[in-house]
Structures
1.
Amino acid sequence: MSSDSTANEISELLGSLREHTKFLSELGAEHVEVAEDPVGESSAAVSVVTGSPNYEAAADVNPKAISPPDEFPTMTTRAATIKSAPQDTLFGDLKPPEPSLLQSSETLEDVWRDIGDCTRCGLCEGRTQVVNTHGNPKARLMFVGEAPGADEDAQGKPFVGRAGQLLTKIIEAIGMKREEVLIGNVNRCRPPGNRQPTLEEAAICRPFLFREIAAVQPDVIVVLGNTALRNLLETREGITRVRGQFQNFRGIKVMPTFHPAYLLRDPSKKKETWEDLKKVRDYLDGLRQSQSITRPDNI
């Protein structure tokens, strides 16, 4: 093999190494160690620091000054150690997350007034009334579901049917009252036959939910079911995959869990939902204790 061919091959290998380094950095790798070549003719070590990766480090090597390895390091031929940042607790830092959703000067009533007798999408044709978010305007905990059902459409309040009664029991089980929390839906009008809202219907109604969240600034939002999860967090992940794991919505912690209507169809999932809500309860309790220490009542 000529020296020029060797240099070209080494250049290609180093280019691949830079791309692989960049990929590991995007995954959050802080340090990657590549074991020595089994033949002993060459070795390589790559350090990746999240936030400041040195993609050009490998480019500083003179391709003509080294011999090509028999086999380029791959995930199957090299051992890699990836270290992730430890969490202080099961829930991460108990301090309130850095606010990225600006406090709104609106009230819930302002948002509802703007919604009015809404005719922005076709759901208005079959509904009885608009079902706005209901509950404590200073709530620390908010629940978000999909859309009103028949009972909600008739009474004008979210979660008042069988699923709503189960939700009330869940709220009470974590030591709170329904009047203390805020409960709403992505859509405010009942879809025909209780079908799932279309993407267009959800997109039209969702901004009002965001405005309510900005007005209330709850500490935690519990999203109930796939529709609420995907519309609030704009993710393709399903509820089964992410339930029980705190997510983030513009600086507010979000706990995805099963919709109460699903629990009525499959009671075996109640245990998992209870585990999810216990995490919410414990997080709120820890946050309350942290705030009471930093802001004593007698000050």
2.
Amino acid sequence: MTVQIRTLDDKMRIPEGAQSTLQTQEYMINMGPQHPIAHGSLRLLLKMDGETVKEVIPVPGYIHRGVEKMGEHMTPMMFTHLTDRTDYLSSLMGNWGISKAIEKAAGIEVSDRVNYIRTIMAELMRLQSHALWWGVLGIDLGAFTAFLYGLREREVISEIFEETIGCRLTMNYIVPGGVLADIHPNFVKRTKDLLPYMRQKIDEYDELLSGNIILQERLRNIGILSAEQAKSMGATGPVLRGSGVPLDLRATDPYGVYDKVDFNVPVGSIGDCWDRYYVRLEEMRESIKIIEQLIDNIPEGKIQAMKISGRIKIPPGTYYDQIETARGIMGVFMVWEGKKTEPYRIHLRSPNYNNLWLATLLAKDWRVADLISIQSTLDLVIPELDR
């Protein structure tokens, strides 16, 4: 077998004759790394024929920080705060992912109270993340009002987080063995008040944007991703479920207290931008249902299984665990050797990284305006794929 290595310079060389039957000239343009649709510092190199996208070449790495390498020199408790700085819109889920992996490796059992709090917090975060995504998709496609409404709902949920956690974005709250602080006395009441409010607002989202003929034209039958393609590319989360694959770890491999609640896993039919859009709206309604079943039943108990400053002993070996974030499956792979309190190797499996490369498949032969719809419905958070 021979392997051909091509550099970015090779890819940027335009052939003498365009692939189109028209007498046009292909050209290369950059979308990013400073571009509103990039949703962060992501460069997309586009080979264009007129307004038709012939090839998409993602160029990540502009904000790479070496998070995983730093993790080799940190104890589990020290590393946890870095996970909320990767996918900052799923920060609590990132905390939970590493904590869950550490607890599995070390044999740490957390109380039912901790599991209830973690599950409720994660679903509030999913609601917040999807509301912001809806608003950002709106402004990506020209609906500025949607962006203001999405930020409005995000602010309401941020205030609930801030009261208990003290932070509004990179929330370092879930840690190995439990949570850093008990819920605020107002938490249950404010959360219960939020649920009917959010249910009404999601109906407003449908009225304002979902039925809009312009949005329908921009999303329906655009960027179709089949179930087979989604699975072969390692897609997860709403992107995979939008293609009709009902894989959701909360249902297929329950953790926390997801096995104690009833909820549906929304899926799409053909895997176009519209399916990915509506799956997320339906997931918001399901998150409300999950929280409703839990919020009045939080049991008493300890919020920490050990001292926060305590050393966590993990036997030598290789460990893997995973969690369902707002964007898909975040996996945590760890290798521990000897009696060291820091891992020999730690790797985060990013849902955003796999979903990014779908753009190379979906955007080919669509207009550049359609690429905006495709990338927006992938819901990428760049600091996680760059890490």
3.
Amino acid sequence: MRLLTVDADSAGQRLDNYLLRLLKGVPKTHVYRVIRSGEVRVNSGRAGADTRVAEGDLVRVPPVRVAERVVAAAAAVPAREFPVLFEDEHLLGVDKPAGVAVHGGSGVSSGVIEQLRKARPGQRFLELVHRLDKETSGVLLLAKKRSALTALQDQFRERETHKVYAALVWGEWPKNLKVIDQPLLKGLDADGERHVRVVSPAHEQARRSITLVKVRRQFATAALLDVTLKTGRTHQIRVHLAHAGHAIVGDPKYGDFAANKAFARQWRSLGFARMFLHARELGFDHPATGERLTLEAPLPAECETLLAALR
């Protein structure tokens, strides 16, 4: 039996998230099982998964075993730094490359967060503030203090951030289509993978989703867009643009598969083999000073090379 004392950096965290962070390699299902069974105690009392822990709380945890293969996988996580866009004692903004998940899981051994933690063993606290799809590059924000994490996540939740993406889509974008206000529903596809689709506003589980679109450059067969998110739903940009009839170039889930295949054959020599979606700008208030910050990530070289060829 282990007795853990909650420190200041962990204060305010949900009990399940607190344990998942500390019990690396223990399956989520087991963590939730010991919480539900009452084997986990907070200050000698039973607690639910959504209980918020406070500094100084005593958390009793039953013995748990970490599988050897999980330990081996954790040891194999590469230490990696990413291009830094901004950093101070409160937060870290990096330029995430395409093809790297933000965190491990679902067949991915490690992501940005695990690799950064390995590269910075002296950093006591480091957590993701938000997410980007594995195929998406660009600005990714991480918190280095619990207080910064909660303050920044509140801004994302209250839609006080400003997020702009660069997207290359197939076809000629309609000049009068500047706002996409279509509700989305998250579910699973036939293979059991996460899938998002546009649904009727009358659907009881529909979530209103708003995307603003501005054409930056129109090419013969594709358009480069500035896409601003007013809501932050899963796969929102990818689904909204595809629903409008102009899927993102290279999108493996919601894209035009025939066009992607032909495109790959034509432009293989350029070294472009990804989805053209890049989080190029993120604006937010600094969690400690209140100063408005705007982080910008330049278009990756492979995207610039492709645009030059299209011109």
